[in-house]
Amino acid sequence: LLLIQAALTVRMDVEQETESASVRVAGRLEEATAQELFELCRRRTGVLVIDLAELVSADRAAIEVLKDLRDAGARIAGATPYIRMLLNGGAHPDGPPAASHDKEEEE
Questions:
Q1: What is the Cα–Cα distance from 33 to 75, expressed in whole angstroms?
Q2: Hey, which end of the chain has fewer CB within 10 Å, N or C?
Q3: What is the number of other CB atoms lying within 10 angstroms of the CB of residue 102?
Q4: 98 CB neighbour count, 10 Å cutoff
Q5: 29-78 tens-digit pLDDT
Q6: pTM summary value
Q7: Partners of 76 in the beta sheet?
Q8: In sequence order, which ranges of the chain are alpha helices (DSSP H)?
């Protein structure tokens, strides 16, 4: 699935197996495409892994969507140290710091 909006490009690849699914996110994730990611992940069955190894950037709304997915049981993998910091409550350049989260992301 390739979503293009103006200067925004993100790619989401899905692999669905019987008991698990993985979604690889590459590019820039912003509010509109983050909602697409949420809907895409919501339709997956079994254990869900979201691979962020190729995620270049994420705005505040996208970080909130990723947190919601994680809180719903998805495992975040491959996130850069910066993205992990944002997911764990660090300050985002375009907004105030979010509340801290206790779960550690696995790589």
A1: 19
A2: C
A3: 6
A4: 17
A5: 999 899 999 999 998 888 999 999 999 999 999 999 999 999 999 999 99
A6: 0.77
A7: 50
A8: 31-42, 60-71, 81-87
d(CA 48, CA 36): 16
Q: How far apart are the first and last CA of the chain?
A: 23
Of 67, 26, 75, the closest CA to residue 46 belongs to 75
Task: Read off the tokens for 74.
Answer: 């998805």
User: In the structure encoding, which two tokens stand for residue 24, read together?
Assistant: 């690889």
Both tokens assigned to 68: 């919601």
**Chain segment 66-102, per-residue pLDDT in tens:** 999 999 999 999 999 999 999 998 766 665 544 444 4
Q: What are phi and psi of 28, to 5 degrees?
A: -110, 120
Closest by CA to 66, choosing from 27, 99, 29, is 29
